[in-house]
Write a structure and sequence with these properties.
The chain contains 22 helices and three strands. The protein has a three-stranded mixed sheet. It is 58% helix and 2% strand. It is mainly alpha-helical.
């Protein structure tokens, strides 16, 4: 999920009690540090505590997002980076050098976002600050309900600050392109309804657990109803009117990130942040063109294996239109995905030494966001499958999607990161898109080795998904640095993949409104596959695929340049699993 919603996610932790050291202040320094390791630890622990409080909201509400607060955050993080610069890297232990590299990259990304004033564009066609807040929640205690009510009452202030930021962005030409905004107000309308039975924010009050006394239930329900009617509905109504009447009419008519203020530098910074590589837009465009050509050739081979007599465009048309490839009900699609995940379970022991205990579930994408949402999304608690518009969701693509989002992709990866021992808190929750999405795409490729694709059609679905990510390299750079039109991007993606027209449209709008993020998938996967080939060549008979995967995942999220260094150390150490010799491994 885009970094713009991190504040909302962290706000859920606002009930935590933070130590005095976490209050707004300069990053703490040890008076007489005994070692570089101790100085580094004091710094990243202080910054992490500060982040938790800063984005957790004041007194249980939402975080401050006004301009003054954003500038204050920038000053704090710049000071933290300056403090980091004074710590001698050559005096750090191996583990702390890794922590320092992750910490530095995270700081640099946050500072870049703040310097470019990204808070003035706090949403895109894929993600936003309003819909995630209303996703169904459940609470067990009266205290949890009271904190929830407090947050609801703070919504008007939070939305007013967001709208003030969006107005500032409009004024200087820093906005989501108008071409991607059609129909997006539907995600606001859901929460503006006065019918409590239909408003997702009221759902927790309709399902108060019986463990709370009846009298207290009645009081909570009355306070909740008042908070929804007097705070939530007016806040969303105001946002809806602003979106329709002011934002959309004034949004920029250009598409390219480079067309915005300081656009070339902004796009270069987005590329650097999302890929954690030093590549230029031109270099990425050329990589994309080569990958597209390679995958097209492999698609032809799989088409022949399916015994289809015709051209590749005809095969794509057949795949997009034949009823045999489409679910008739949401449950059929969800069941198909669940069966893929269970087949993967039976293969994991052959590809990984360490398996996480934490379990995920598979859920449909919430109705409020499903019409414009991507095909799926993975996470620690659950991975989502989009069941909206079933004729746009071919089943032959579900195996690749499930591998990527669920296991051994994002949900599996997130559980492993959670369960790693002796890892600083900031490392457990830091996410680099090139690493995470690169791993997700790599698992789609791994699924072929695991025997998950049972038919040529499912294997073609894998290739269609790989082509989708390769085409992104061409389309993203084409749109944001080479003057491509929206139609040019639609035609390029639609003619090379088995994606439905609905998916093609939502994806292209995502790339237009979220520059740079889509580059991370293919560049990350290419990095992992290249490192695997290097390990196989250098280790020979000593290469064990389980050890390699352990080495990739055991560290948690890393910048890709740091991952390269880490895997070369793994090779130099003889390809041993990082878990070897650990107690309980």
């Amino acid at each position: 999920m885009k970094k713009l919603i991190i504040g909302a996610a962290l706000a859920a932790a606002s009930s935590l009690a933070f130590p005095a050291a976490a209050q707004q202040q300069a990053p703490a320094r040890a008076a007489s540090p005994s070692s570089a390791d101790a100085r580094l630890k004091a710094l990243y622990d202080a910054v992490w505590s500060w982040r938790q409080k800063e984005y957790g909201g004041e007194e249980g509400g939402f975080p401050r997002v006004d301009e003054a607060s954003q500038k204050r955050r920038l000053a704090y993080l710049e000071k933290a980076l300056a403090d980091l610069e004074r710590i001698p890297v050559d005096q750090l232990s191996a583990e702390e050098r890794l922590n320092a590299a992750v910490f530095r990259t995270s700081l640099e990304g946050s500072i870049s976002d703040l310097r470019f004033r990204e808070w003035e564009m706090p949403f895109n066609s894929d993600s936003n600050f309003w819909a995630s807040l209303g996703q169904q929640q459940s609470f067990k205690t009266a205290e949890e309900y009271r904190r929830y009510i407090k947050r609801l009452k703070d919504l008007p202030r939070y939305f007013d600050e967001q709208m003030a930021n969006m107005r500032a962005g409009l004024k200087r030409g820093f906005s989501v392109p108008r071409a991607t905004l059609a129909g997006r107000e539907s995600s606001i309308e859901t929460y503006a309804t006065t019918d409590l039975a239909k408003n997702p924010f009221y759902t927790p009050f309709a399902n108060i657990p019986a463990t709370i006394p009846a009298a207290e239930q009645a009081q909570i329900r009355a306070e909740g109803e008042a908070a929804v009617q007097q705070s939530v509905v007016p806040a969303y109504t105001k946002l809806l009117n602003f979106f329709r009447g002011e934002y959309v009419p004034k949004a920029r008519t250009t598409l390219a990130a480079e067309a915005m203020p300081d656009g070339k530098a902004f796009y270069a910074a987005q590329i650097r942040e999302y890929t954690t590589l030093g590549l230029t837009a031109d270099e990425i465009h050329q990589i994309g063109l080569k990958e597209v050509a390679r995958i097209e050739a492999e698609m032809g081979q799989v088409m022949r294996a399916a015994k289809f007599n015709g051209t590749l465009p005809q095969f794509l048309a057949f795949l997009k239109s034949d009823p045999q490839f489409y679910a008739k009900t949401p449950d059929e699609l969800m069941g198909f995905s669940s069966y893929v995940a269970k087949r993967v379970d039976g293969k994991l022991k052959d590809y990984f030494n360490f398996l996480p205990r934490y379990r995920f579930t598979i859920r449909p994408v919430p109705d409020a966001i499903a019409p414009y949402y991507t095909a799926g999304r993975g996470g620690l608690e659950s991975c989502w499958m989009n069941t909206y518009n079933l004729p746009a969701r071919p089943l032959y693509q579900i195996p690749a999607l499930t591998l990527h989002e669920c296991a051994p992709g994002h949900s599996f990866q997130a559980a492993l990161a959670l369960e790693q021992p002796k890892r600083p808190d900031f490392r457990r929750q830091t996410y680099f898109s090139g690493y995470g999405e690169g791993w997700g795409l790599y698992t789609e490729y791994l699924g072929k080795e695991m025997g998950i694709y049972r038919t040529p059609y499912e294997d073609f679905g894998r290739l269609s998904y790989e082509m989708w990510r390769a085409a992104r390299l061409v389309i993203d750079t084409g749109l944001h640095s080479k003057g491509w039109t929206r139609q040019q991007a639609l035609d390029y993606l639609g003619s090379r993949t088995a994606l439905s027209q609905h998916e093609v449209t939502t994806e292209v709008d995502r790339y237009i409104s979220w520059p740079g993020q889509a580059l991370s998938y293919k560049l990350g996967e290419l990095t992992i596959r290249r490192l695997r080939a290097e390990a196989e060549a250098k280790l020979g008979d000593k290469f064990d695929i389980r050890n390699f995967h352990d080495a990739i995942l055991e560290t948690g999220s890393l910048p890709l340049s740091v991952l390269e260094q880490h895997i070369r150390e793994f090779i130099a150490n003889g390809g041993k699993s990082p878990y070897e010799g650990r107690a309980g491994s």
